[in-house]
Specification:
Blueprint lengths: L4 H13 L21 H14 L11 H24 L6 H23 L21 H12 L6 H8 L5
């Protein structure tokens, strides 16, 4: 990666991971990885989380669609940089190749989210009042736990079986 592209991509990745409620993550934070759980361990972890989550009673601003638009801009710019690097006969990392090859899937998911998530939707979601995800929708913390303990693999069967018990 060129000297100019490297810091730019790191800055965008930090913004993608960032949270306008609080900058809890930094570009140099380790990836979302933790001990890998079997299906039974994931169910037990779901029970533990359900018992530990404290829900906030106050209203929180809706930032979901604005965050989606910001992330879309960042990903589009990253694709432009990667395309320019390829045009200049530069090698790109496999993750960059994956992004270019599969960006149409990301765009499709963004369109689906815009179509099905009305403005103000995230205000209705239960939010956490304590812990590392304070102020964020509870589902965000569940998603982070699923990703980190599932090695980034998320599928409908695993989600319905493992996290069904996290309902309060």
């Amino acid at each position: 990666m060129s000297e100019k592209v490297g810091p730019t991509v790191r800055k965008w990745m930090a913004r993608l991971r960032g949270n306008s409620l609080a900058d809890r993550t930094r570009a140099d934070d380790p990836p979302l990885r933790a001990e890998l759980f079997s299906a039974d361990q994931m169910k037990q972890h779901g029970r533990t989380l359900a018992g530990a989550h404290q829900l906030a009673r106050r209203w929180a601003p809706d930032r979901l669609l604005a965050r989606l638009a910001d992330n879309e801009r960042i990903l589009t710019e990253a694709c432009k940089l990667l395309t320019a690097a390829l045009a200049a006969d530069r090698r790109i990392v496999p993750a960059g190749e994956w992004l270019l090859d599969n960006f149409y899937l990301i765009e499709e998911q963004i369109r689906t989210a815009r179509r099905h998530l009305p403005e103000g939707y995230s205000r209705e979601l239960p939010r956490l009042s304590s812990g590392p995800s304070t102020g964020l929708p509870r589902v965000y913390d569940i998603a982070l736990e699923t990703i980190s303990h599932g090695d980034g693999r998320v599928d409908p069967e695993g989600l319905t079986g493992s996290w069904r018990l996290t309902r309060l």
